[in-house]
UniProtKB/TrEMBL annotation:
Keywords: Acetylation, Acyltransferase, Endoplasmic reticulum, Fatty acid metabolism, Lipid metabolism, Membrane, Mitochondrion, Mitochondrion inner membrane, Mitochondrion outer membrane, Transferase, Transit peptide. Mitochondrial trifunctional enzyme catalyzes the last three of the four reactions of the mitochondrial beta-oxidation pathway. The mitochondrial beta-oxidation pathway is the major energy-producing process in tissues and is performed through four consecutive reactions breaking down fatty acids into acetyl-CoA. Among the enzymes involved in this pathway, the trifunctional enzyme exhibits specificity for long-chain fatty acids. The lineage of its organism: Eukaryota, Metazoa, Chordata, Craniata, Vertebrata. Pathway: Lipid metabolism; fatty acid beta-oxidation. InterPro entries: Thiolase (IPR002155), Thiolase-like (IPR016039), Thiolase_AS (IPR020610), Thiolase_C (IPR020617), Thiolase_CS (IPR020613), Thiolase_N (IPR020616). The gene is HADHB. GO terms for cellular component: endoplasmic reticulum; mitochondrial fatty acid beta-oxidation multienzyme complex; mitochondrial inner membrane; mitochondrial outer membrane. The keyword Manganese does not apply. GO terms for biological process: fatty acid beta-oxidation. PANTHER family: ACETYL-COA C-ACYLTRANSFERASE, TRIFUNCTIONAL ENZYME SUBUNIT BETA, MITOCHONDRIAL. GO terms for molecular function: acetyl-CoA C-acyltransferase activity; acetyl-CoA C-myristoyltransferase activity. This is Trifunctional enzyme subunit beta, mitochondrial.
Length: 482
């Protein structure tokens, strides 16, 4: 399929140049577009005398709510995360459950929710620590609250969680500083046989059978089991298939880091909690945000397909340590306990496609489905948060979403879903810059949408991500009335 896409998509491009999309607009232009989008008929000059609260009320009040008769409303009460750090840095001596507990404790501290009020705990993690296979139970093991752990790269424990009970803690953790390394299979078989050997002769015979090749370890890789291909390699092929240039990828990466830096310095990343690392300093911010210039980006060599690939270390998300946690409740219970929810969690979908050539196209497949389920269109969405696994992956998805040919040929749709406006897209940075602890990213995305909806006065947000196995997911989030 890659060669077909390469030939057919050469003319496929996003409708506006990236320079225009990323460029700054004048304040009058912003207000004019704001008024046009929300159908505000007052001349923009007069809005200078209106308060932010007035505009927010007017912006959100005209759109329909997604509440359904007979279906209980599920709300996001609060979401937190530890700082996301480059693997091998400050968290290096910890274990995954240490980070997961820190996130959960931060959530409990911020909300004050009694431990016995939580009905269930769900955590996601991908590369599991074998000593704590059910890390969800380890983060809160001294209570009677049941808990389970699931594995889905870039997955949403939050999607699974909110269907369960009236009060759920959902979260995720990934610890890439210390991943499990196994002996080779031949060595494992020998060691297991040695453990069962009963006589000295049997033991000596097994020991004598060990060869140097048996001692080669098996290192875990961010790769697909079915294809044995790393995600970076898949991203490189996908970018080539959709004609995404190295310059486009580097521009997007620069955008992500620049926006993340601005959000960090402006105090917008309020989901980040401070964490006292035992034996080290207090960590209070992400350390992977590193704005760079296009000239510096251009110096890096391809990381996966050499020498002609376009995916580099700088336009890819980095190996990250971190954890997240959210408190989700039925609206009735949240209000009864005195909470002011942040947002409604509305419709969501999971999708699955070819894990070889379409591994990272989850957002393209999940976005139209979740919009249809919610009865919305792309123009209804005020805030977009897409997981940035690779800059090339994001760009390829945007081009696929803007292609009638792709929709008709591969998705069985009559027409394209369209692309998100970059004025609404990942405005506080993304996984390229903030980091991507596999199991923890979903909660970060959802919490970010809730915060942005409140800050920007929007009503609907959409989260989308690709996932391992050629899967993907999306969720529609609705602002809670302020």
């Amino acid at each position: 399929m890659a060669s077909m896409l390469l030939n057919s998509m050469r003319s496929c491009s996003v409708s506006h140049s990236w320079a225009m999309r990323f460029g700054k607009m004048s304040s009058s232009s912003v207000v004019q577009q704001f008024n046009k989008f929300y159908n505000i008929s007052i001349p923009w000059e007069k809005n200078l005398f209106r308060t932010t609260e007035d505009i927010e009320i007017q912006a959100t009040s005209h759109k329909k709510t997604l509440a359904r008769p007979g279906v209980k409303n599920i709300v996001l009460v609060e979401g937190v995360r530890t700082p996301f750090l480059l693997s091998g840095t400050t968290y290096v001596d910890l274990m995954p459950h240490d980070l997961a507990r820190a996130a959960l404790q931060g959530l409990l501290n911020r909300t004050g929710v009694p431990k016995d009020a939580v009905d269930y705990i769900i955590y996601g993690t991908v590369i599991q620590e074998v000593k704590t296979s059910n890390v969800a139970r380890e983060v809160h093991r001294h209570t009677h609250t049941p808990a389970h752990t699931f594995t889905l790269q870039s997955g949403y424990s939050i999607m699974t969680g909110y269907c369960q009970c009236d009060a759920v803690v959902a979260g995720g953790v990934e610890f890439m500083s210390d991943v499990p390394i196994r002996h080779s299979r031949k060595m494992r078989k020998t060691m297991l046989s040695l453990n069962k050997a009963k006589t000295l002769g049997q033991k000596l015979s097994l020991i004598g059978s060990i060869r140097m090749a048996h001692l080669s370890p098996e290192l875990p890789a961010v790769a697909e089991f079915s294809t044995a291909e790393t995600m970076g390699h898949s991203a490189d092929r996908l970018a080539a298939a959709f004609g995404v240039s190295r310059v486009e990828q580097d521009e997007f990466a620069v955008r992500s880091h620049s926006l993340a830096k601005k959000a960090q310095e402006s105090g917008l990343l309020e989901d980040v909690i401070s964490f006292k690392v035992p034996g080290r300093d207090i960590v209070s911010k992400d350390n992977g945000i590193r704005p760079s210039s296009m000239e510096q980006m251009a110096k890096l060599k391809p990381a996966f397909i050499k020498p002609h690939g376009t995916v580099t270390a700088a336009n890819s998300s980095f190996l990250t340590d971190g954890a997240s946690a959210v408190l989700i409740m039925s609206e009735e219970k949240a209000l009864a306990m005195g909470y002011k929810p942040k947002a409604y969690l509305r419709d969501f979908v999971y999708v699955s496609q070819d894990p070889k050539d379409q591994l990272l196209l989850g957002p393209t497949y999940s976005t139209p489905k979740v919009l249809e389920r919610a009865g919305l269109s792309m123009s209804d969405i005020d805030v977009f948060e897409f997981h940035e696994a690779f800059a090339g992956q994001i760009m390829a998805n945007l081009k696929a979403m803007d292609s009638d040919w792709f929709a008709q040929t591969y998705m069985g749709r009559k027409s394209k879903v369209g692309t998100p406006s970059m004025d609404k897209f990942n405005l506080w940075g993304g996984s390229l810059s903030l980091g991507h602890p596999f199991g923890a990213t979903g909660c970060r995305l959802v919490t970010t949408v809730a915060h942005r909806l409140k800050k920007e006065g929007g009503q609907y947000g959409l989260v989308a991500a690709c996932a391992a196995g050629g899967q993907g997911h999306a969720m529609v989030i609705e602002a809670y009335p302020q």
